[in-house]
Amino acid sequence: MRLKDQVVLITGSARGIGKEIAKTFANEGATVIISDINAASAEATSEEFKKEGFNSSSFACDVTSMKSVEEMINKILDNYSRIDILVNNAGITKDNLLLRMSENEWDAVLNTNLKGVFCCTKAVTKSMLRAKKGKIINIASIIGITGNAGQANYSASKAGIIGFTKSIAKEFSSRGITSNAVAPGFIQSDMTDKLTDKAREEIFKTIPLGKLGTPKDVANACLFLASSEADYITGQTIVVDGGMAI
Ligand code: NDP
Fold it and tell me: Which one of 49, 154, 164, 172 is the catalytic residue?
């Protein structure tokens, strides 16, 4: 019960990696707030967790809108009076080679992946500053470190998250708030489930540990950063990629 009585907000947690982070945290005693742009799927995930005996609630929120984020944070603070841990997980891809990349593809990815982290962190840290404690965990990507052809928008957004994480760590360390990032590599997902065996083999050749990561691998790194075991760690990025970026 490493997160007993902690109130945790996880963005984009109706499905995928965010849902696994929420489940992992709930298993450790946290109250998990499932936030997603899709209200119905956020509620469905929260109901699923409640049936398993976890403390959970759901809030619809579009992280690209400061207004939407502030409304959600105000409602959460009305209900729980505090947010101990924020996991900025919501993220999208809109891949294209740079010369074919539209302004919309650039803006959508930067707005969701990077502006979303700004909006949620700014709104949540106000209450963390009052409490003089808090943990912020940002989901970046290995692509923010290595770059990737066809993902200039995504790579820029995730590299931006790593810089943001360090800056926030410097701003808030003296106030008891830590800020860290997790950079996953190739993680089992709806997308990787559709890969052919040949494509899968080609990917495995680039990963020293020879397999895809799982959402649980990412959630475990987040759990460590969220726990008191990581109290003396801030401004860091933990890479969870099976050694791919070595
Ligand atoms: P998914 O697409 O499975 O889940 C993302 C969730 O975020 C969805 O529920 C989605 O809602 C929600 N979302 C999208 N836009 C918004 C928004 N504007 N406001 C609030 N919620 C939103 O993604 P993954 O689980 O695969 O990825 C989670 C994070 O991990 C992302 O930041 C991603 O970049 C990162 N990552 C993933 C890797 C992977 O291999 N999967 C590798 C490296 C990093 P909806 O479904 O309704 O659109």
Answer: 154
| Beta carbons of 172 and 125 less than 8 angstroms apart | yes
Residue 154 among the catalytic residues = yes
Specify the ligand 1 atom closest to the Cα of 189. 41
- Label residue 11 exposed, middle or buried (CB < 10 Å: 0-12, 13-18, 19+): buried
Where exactly are the structural domains of the chain?
7-188+214-240
pLDDT digits (tens, 9 = 90+) for 136-184: 999 999 999 999 999 999 999 999 999 999 999 999 999 999 999 999 9
In angstroms, what is the span from residue 13 Cα to ligand 1's centroid?
8
Q: If you measure from the C-alpha of residue 49 to the centroid of ligand 1, how many angstroms do you get, rounded to a whole number?
A: 19
On average, the pLDDT of the chain sits at: 97
Ligand 1 atom closest to Cα of 143? Answer: 43
At the fourth CATH level, the homologous superfamily of domain 7-188+214-240 is NAD(P)-binding Rossmann-like Domain (3.40.50.720)
Report the nearest atom of ligand 1 relative to the CA of 158. 34
pTM of the model: 0.98
**Region class of 40: left (phi > 0), else alpha (psi between -120 and 50), else beta:** alpha
